[in-house]
Amino acid sequence: MRQIGWIGLGKMGLPMALRLLEKGHNLNVYNRTLSKMKSFKNQNISQFENTADLARQSDLIISMISDDKAINDVALCREGVLNHAKKGTTYIDMSTISPSISSEIAQLAEQKGIYYLRAPVNGTVMQAENSTLVILVSGPKKIFNINKDLFNMLGNKIYYLGDQEQARYIKLSINMMVGISAIMMAEALALGNSGGLDRDLMVDIIKNSAVGSPLINYKEKTLKERDFTPAFSAEQMAKDFDLILQAGRSANVPLTMAAQTREHWSTMISMGRGEHDYFGYTDLLEKLAGQKD
After folding, report:
1. Residue 26 and residue 137 share a domain
2. Which residues span the domain enclosing 176?
3. What 3-state class would DSSP assign to 134?
4. Total structural domains in the chain?
């Protein structure tokens, strides 16, 4: 069995790593916040204090981290995995990062004789815990086929999209639609509220209308209970929309709705709600419209 190096033990990374442990894999583990590794007490785990040592002792390396800066530190810098992994190692990054930095990773990986798969995910922490994530993969198809069983341990819908950065673009496209949907819902609820409609009844009707979606179903409880404990925060959404707009500019694709939506995340952040769930914009808009204190 291959020795797997796992980098990143955040909200999504931790349950995903635990799923591989449950399946009997041996893990080498690194997290930038070293204290997060203390929760691991398993004979199949080796903990590392840097990515270079982890890379040297792993046959397959997986990262699930926060952003472009983190991936630069983990993969591209002098102590990064690509400069220390053995030739023939497979590196799978499952983070949400820009296509541009992903291309840099691909170029360096090719120079070093390392196989690189992009595999961002769609789903929640609960889906990560239950291995029901949607996994979006691009890179060398032969390497994808070799690792398909591993992906099936983490998700229940696996898509192979091509040999370049296709997985990065579909991930950003989906996140763009998710973010815009939250703003649409906020404006719809505020408009209905101005006409005397009951909020919970509106949520029910919208959920069962032509614009209903799995996203609205998933956020129904959040909306009705006004509990904006973050599954995905406004700050995280702002980061993703920066990536979306950067990709659009690079390709000369006008993304006017995305640009306007990005401003709403700035509003949440500036008003002290950046750590709230991004659907918390529904609550903020009511305040901005003078509908609640």
Report:
1. yes
2. 169-288
3. strand
4. 2
Of the candidates 66, 85, 65, which has an alpha carbon nearest to the alpha carbon of residue 3?
85
- The answer for residues whose C-beta is within 8 angstroms of residue 219's C-beta and 6 or more apart is 182, 185, 279
- The Cα–Cα gap between 239 and 265 comes to 9
**Residues 27 and 80 both lie in one domain:** yes
Q: Is the dihedral of CA 189, 254, 260, 237 positive or negative?
A: positive
**End-to-end Cα separation, the chain, in angstroms:** 59
CA atoms of 178 and 171, how far apart (whole Å)? 11
- Tens digits of per-residue pLDDT, 46-102? 999 999 999 999 999 999 999 999 999 999 999 999 999 999 999 999 999 999 999
Residues in the chain: 293
The tokens of 150 are what? 């591993």
Q: Are strands 90-93 and 3-7 parallel, antiparallel or unpaired?
A: unpaired
